[in-house]
Design a protein that fits this description.
The structure is a single chain. Helix content is about 35%, strand content about 20%. The strands form five sheets. An eight-stranded antiparallel beta sheet has the order 3-2-4-1-10-9-11-14, with helices on one face. A six-stranded antiparallel beta sheet has the order 5-6-7-8-12-13. The protein has a five-stranded parallel beta sheet with strand order 18-17-19-20-21, sandwiched between helices. Helix 16 (about 475-485) crosses helix 19 (about 595-615).
Length: about 625
């Protein structure tokens, strides 16, 4: 949600800014803009409602110079997507510009005060308040500095870094803000520096050779530098071409750690695929292999994790698990609930993070919390995790993005190793989350009653999963044919039971988010308690029904739909002849052990959603109104 880039160095700022913004497009946005500063011609500010391509065209037609610059993609919160509301925002009479991610909760109060001081607002955003507030702080600091000069004259002064004043002006403003921010500020009179700060919204610095970069995550840095500094909350960074200085909002200097950026060019490039979503669907055999690498211990008939930071004795004492997440990650948590309860026999509760953060449920000692998140930046998940941590519960993360806020704040956890997921619709991260939860169930089970043979059987089953997924991907053309057949449906029911119920929810979510077709996921047997009223000739029902203990019962649910004239699409195991006489369309997936069915049966549902969306000419990777990581409440 929103993206920030910045550059200081000898190069042409717009080159990195535009490329960086393109790489951040996946985060979701509806307008964009850049500001550059040159010693000769001062500010250049270009904004655009809509895509980066339009912004690049404007800059191509009227090039702008400058070796220092910031850029932004905005996902509208305060005020619609218009040019005046697009960032960067100008503070004072043009002394500075600001780009900002996050939400300032007390902006109205601050705005009224600043208007009282004579500031004129040109946008409806909360961000413009920050711009004028820094300017107002600057004015006050200048007054103080005038007095200090007097002190210097009398021998009490000390030498200062020339950017100290910028830092102090930003610090003074930040202390008055309530809310979240990742921001970057440029000052007209200091064209060689950018001041950046974060609280609740990610920001990284790329360390180059005689140049520095700023970005919301590591993807814009690929190809420019592999040295990255992850800023933490309450940190302020000052970047110039040659130097990076990090300070704490309340305290002074902070030693920063330069880490190696692990992303590769192929991770952020489309390659032969028309969309990132399709690329990521097809990457699943590999992302699953990566998620298992080094984690299957045949010796112990168990899983192996490096970062749980809890001893087997401590984990043995866990008598309840809470899995908290949002969206697709919440669906993965539901699969986790079935698996952990089945394999490890530990009671599990799955909580929407947005509810958990305010619900205040009684949580007994011995409860272990897992926050599940692809991005590691989802605000509700972060808030729920912090609340649980505050109460003293061990809080772990299952996360994809290394260096993300949740990954850093958790007491420990498990990385997905799925590689960057750029399509807004989560696909490979979902299967990796389900995989990790299966491994976790095995690990916890082996700490308790689960026998060596059963553990070995699960490991052998998991080893074969990438191959099963490869086979499931062969349904692609069949999924496309079915997508074309049901293209005009305005509502689709997704039905499954037990381990296939979360798959129904996830399949329906995939369709909704990228095709804008309404879809409802339901436990198949629950359908007759209400949703069956929706069934008619125009409303297809998609059943996820590989073999299981409840297979025959699901067949009965299919009969109920057919008796009411509803078309049925059935996702079944290969060789299932029984369903062919009933269903209108059949998608066959490989026959697999029940515990890994969710990893395989989701694949045709992802493909079906993808094809319906592309046949409808939807912007699959950047669906309307959605953001990749939701960093607002
Ligand atoms: O990054 P997270 O896993 O925390 O994101 C949670 C949801 O916002 C996310 O899964 C969302 O539902 C996706 N658009 C699903 O495709």
């Amino acid at each position: 949600m929103c993206g920030i880039v910045g550059y200081v160095g000898p190069g042409k700022a717009t080159e990195f800014l535009l490329e960086g913004l393109r790489r951040l497009e996946y985060r979701g946005y509806d307008s964009c803009g850049v500001a550059t500063l040159s010693k000769k011609s001062g500010w250049s500010l270009v904004k655009q409602v809509g895509r980066i391509a339009g912004l690049a065209e404007k800059i191509h037609d009227s090039p702008i110079g400058g070796r220092t610059g910031v850029g932004h993609t905005r996902w509208a919160t305060h005020g619609p997507a218009t040019e005046p509301n697009a960032h960067p925002h100008v503070g004072g009479d043009g002394r500075l510009v600001v780009v900002h991610n996050g939400v300032i909760e007390n902006y109205q109060k601050l705005k009224a005060r600043l208007q009282g001081e004579g500031y004129v607002f040109r946008s409806a955003t909360d961000t413009e308040v920050i711009a004028h507030l820094i300017d107002s702080c600057w004015n006050r600091l200048e007054l103080d500095a005038a007095e200090a000069k007097h002190e210097i004259a009398s021998g009490n002064g000390a030498a200062h870094d020339p950017t100290d004043l910028l830092v102090e002006a930003v610090r003074c403003a930040l202390k008055q803000l309530r809310g979240t921010y990742g921001l970057a500020v440029m000052f007209r009179d200091y064209p060689d520096a950018i001041v950046a700060a974060r609280l609740g919204s990610p920001l990284v610095v790329g360390v180059g050779d005689g140049e520095h970069y700023l970005a919301s995550d590591g993807s814009p840095l690929v190809g420019y530098t592999d040295k990255i500094v992850y800023l933490a909350d309450s940190q302020i960074a000052v970047i110039t071409a040659d130097a990076l200085r990090v300070l704490h909002l309340e305290e002074g200097h902070v030693d920063h750690l330069v880490e190696k950026l692990e992303l590769q060019a192929q991770d952020v490039e489309l390659g032969p695929y028309p969309h990132y979503m399709l690329k990521e669907i097809f990457e699943q055999p590999e992302s699953l292999r990566n998620g298992m690498r080094g984690r299957l211990s045949f010796e112990d008939a168990s899983a192996r994790f490096g970062g749980l930071n809890l001893t087997p004795q401590q984990l043995r004492g866990v008598n309840k698990i809470i899995l908290t997440a949002c969206g697709t990650s919440w669906h993965a948590a539901l699969v986790g609930e079935y698996l952990i309860e089945k394999i490890a026999r530990i009671p599990v509760e799955v909580e929407y993070a947005s509810e958990l953060r305010y619900r205040n449920p009684p949580v007994e000692p011995g409860t272990l919390i897992f926050a599940i998140t692809q991005s590691g930046e989802t605000l509700d998940t972060l808030a729920a995790m912090r609340e649980m941590k505050r109460k003293g519960h061990p809080t772990l993360a299952i996360c994809n993005v290394v260096g993300s806020t949740i990954a850093k704040e958790a007491d420990g956890g498990i990385f997905l190793h799925a590689g960057p997921e750029i399509g807004v619709a989560s696909t490979k991260a979902y299967t990796s989350q389900v995989l990790v939860l299966t491994l976790l169930a095995l690990y916890l089970g082996r700490l308790r009653h689960l026998g060596y043979d059963e553990g070995t059987h699960i490991l052998k089953t998991l080893e074969r999963v990438p191959g099963y997924v490869e086979k499931a991907l062969l349904t692609d053309s069949e999924c496309r044919r079915i997508a074309a057949k049901y293209l005009h449906a305005t509502n689709i029911l997704y039905l499954g039971r037990q381990l296939n119920f979360p798959t129904a929810l996830e399949g329906a979510l995939k369709l909704k988010e990228i095709s804008y077709v309404h879809a409802e996921g339901y436990p198949a047997a629950e359908m007759k308690h209400g949703p069956i009223a929706l069934v008619d000739e125009e409303t297809p029902s998609l059943f996820i029904m590989p073999h299981s203990a409840v297979y025959e019962k699901v067949v009965a649910n299919v009969e109920e739909i057919k008796a009411r004239g509803g078309p049925v699409i059935a996702v079944v195991e290969e060789g299932d002849t029984q369903i062919r006489r009933l269903a209108d369309d059949v998608i066959e997936i490989p026959r697999v052990d029940e515990i890994v069915q969710p990893l395989v049966s989701i694949v045709p549902l992802q493909l079906l959603a993808y094809h319906i969306a592309t046949l409808k000419n939807r912007d699959v990777d950047k669906p309307r109104n959605l953001a990749k990581s939701v960093t607002v409440e």
